[in-house]
Every structure is written in C-alpha cells, then in structure tokens.
Design goal:
Elements: H1 3-27, H2 42-46, H3 53-62, H4 65-68, E1 74-79, H5 81-85, H6 91-95, H7 101-109, E2 112-114, H8 119-128, E3 132-136, E4 142-148, E5 151-155, E6 161-171, E7 174-179
Parallel strand pairs: 1-7
Antiparallel strand pairs: 1-2, 3-4, 4-5, 5-6, 6-7
Length: about 190
C-alpha cells in the first residue's frame, strides 16, 4: 500500500471515529449537569444528575434501587427536583417516612412503564391515536402521552400534566425522559 493511500485511509478513519464519537455524545443529552452514559443503568446515571437528587433519595427510600438496576427495559418519566418542590408543602417529607414506603413506591412506580419507548415512539403512537397514547405503568396506573404543538406531555390519571423537557436519555436498561412535574396516581 502506498504511503499516500495509508495517509488517506488514516484520515478517513479519524473522520469516521470523530463522527461516531460526536454522534454518540449528541445522542445522549447531559442531564442535571452530568453526562449520561448509554452503557450505564438508570440508577448509575440518575445519581449523577444534580436535578434528580430528590428522585434518587425517594428511589432509595422506597427500596427500588435494585429493581431499577435490573435488565428491564424501562421507560422512566423522571421528575426534576423543582417538580417535587411544586407538591404541597410537606408532601415529600411525608412520603420519605418509613411508614409511608408503600405510598412512596406507588408514586414512583407510577412514573415507570415496562419497555423502552423513545420520544419518536411516543409521538408516532400518539399521532396514530388522535394525538394521545395511553400507557400502563408498573404500578398499574395510567399515563397518557399527548402531543401539544411540537412538545410531548405526559398526563396522570388525575389530569396532572408534565412536559418532557429532555427526551431520549438512553440507558443500558431502558430510557429516561426528564419531566418537569411529579405524576400522581389516583
């Protein structure tokens, strides 16, 4: 092989490598100031997000860490700290008490759907059903993805809405969609 050809191939390899690296980085957004890695599970990534410290504390208090580290796959609608802050005063403290573990587990699992649903999946399914797509959570509650303009919202059974603010944070065991409000079961 000529040195010119070797140089050209090396250049193409560098471009291909650089393209792949930037594509992989762009494909998984930063969340809460932290990189999210598609080869780590939901818990391993969530603990690094400064926007999800309340959610992580709640997952630990509910004893759901082991579950969210299994193979899944899961789709998690992950509320940010500010979303928990919008609940009535004292709600989070009450839910975190050991005697309320069952209620906390119900609230948290009302944010989890079995399977991996990307935002494109949710949009496609909603468009096929008049702009709405109904899902059942692992808690047995219902969530509905609703298209509003170019945005995707998730509604709980009580009519509470949460906007997906960061979509498609891929995990080794599913996908996280960051939402701005806590979804509440009935």
């Amino acid at each position: 092989m000529t040195s010119t050809r070797k140089t050209a191939l090396a250049g193409l390899a560098a471009i291909a490598f650089g393209f792949g690296a930037s594509t992989a980085f762009a494909a998984n957004p930063m969340v809460g100031g932290a990189a999210m890695y598609a080869d780590k599970n939901i818990v391993e990534n969530a603990v690094n997000s400064k926007d999800h410290t309340t959610l992580v504390a709640a997952v630990k208090a509910a004893g759901l860490v082991d579950t969210l580290q299994t193979a899944g796959p899961f789709t998690v609608f992950a509320p940010v700290n500010a979303g928990f802050g919008m609940l009535p005063a004292g709600t989070v403290d009450t839910l975190l008490k050991p005697e309320n573990k069952d209620m906390l587990t119900k609230v948290l699992t009302a944010h989890v759907v079995a399977g991996k649903l990307s935002s494109a999946d949710l949009m496609r399914k909603a468009k096929a059903n008049g702009g709405r797509y109904n899902m059942q959570t692992v808690s047995g509650d219902a969530l509905t993805a609703v298209i509003k303009g170019k945005n995707l919202y998730v509604f709980d059974e009580s009519g509470g809405a949460s906007k997906i603010t960061i979509a498609d944070v891929n995990q080794s065991n599913g996908v996280i969609h960051v939402v701005n409000h806590v979804l509440l079961p009935k």
